[in-house]
Structure formats: C-alpha cells, structure tokens
Design a protein that fits this description.
Elements lengths: L15 E7 L5 E6 L1 E4 L2 E7 L3 H8 L2 E8 L2 E16 L2 H16 L11 E13 L1
Length: 129
C-alpha cells in the first residue's frame, strides 16, 4: 500500500505515533511508540515481555495513529498486521539507537538485560485526516 506523498513526512520525521493492540480479554491497549517507515512496512521497536509484545504474539492485527507534532488535527490511521518479528539483537539495538536520534536527538541505549525486537507491520489500510 502506498502512502500519499503529502503524509509521508509523518512516518519519517519523528512525529507522535500510537500503537493499538488487543489484550487477551478483548479490550484495547494503546501505547505511544517510535516508528520507522521501511516501504512497505512500518517498524516499531519494543522489548520482549511488554504488554504490546505479548498481545501481538496472540493477535498480530494492530492499528497505528501518527499525528503531526505541530498540528495534531493532521494525522493518518494505519491498520495492519505484524508480519515479522526481528529479534536479532545487533539489528534491534541499532534500530532503537537510530529511533532515539530521530525522536530525541540522542541515541537511545536500552538496558543491557532487555531483549529488543523490531515489529515489522504490513500496512493493509490507511486513512488520512
């Protein structure tokens, strides 16, 4: 699925993103996340054991809202499915370092005991607002 050119910057410049997953009891769970766009996938970095990771292991369908940090009325809503979980630690740790630079200006160094993963999400549908 192609992203409209006028909204592509939302996936590339560290704008606010929120990931929704489904808890085991069927209720929604929503978390702010850092994202990258690796056409045709959105990628999110997290740690094994977190609620979003556990939810995705049971149900890979997700929704992501990305809003413009300067105009939260401009946003895109993505529905998709986690197609791959990348758990190679060198790659996952480098990914979170780069996300830190994008979002804070500094590389992010997670605790050494965390097992990092990249959630690769195939975009199924996008709406623009």
């Amino acid at each position: 699925m192609e992203i409209l050119e006028e909204y592509l910057y939302l996936l590339q410049e560290g704008h606010h993103a929120y990931l929704a997953t489904v808890n085991p009891n069927g209720t929604p769970q929503c978390t702010p996340v850092w994202i990258t766009y690796n056409h045709p996938f959105v990628e999110i970095n997290t740690a094994k054991g977190r609620r979003k990771y556990k939810n995705i292991m049971k149900n890979p369908w997700v929704s992501i809202v990305v809003s413009d940090k300067n105009n939260f009325y401009k946003y895109m809503a993505i529905k998709g499915k986690v197609e791959k979980i990348i758990d190679e630690q060198n790659e996952a740790r480098e990914h979170i370092r780069k996300l830190g630079i994008t979002y804070t200006g500094q590389p992010f160094e997670p605790p050494k005991e965390e097992v990092r993963v990249i959630l690769r999400i195939k975009i199924e549908r996008v709406s623009y607002h």
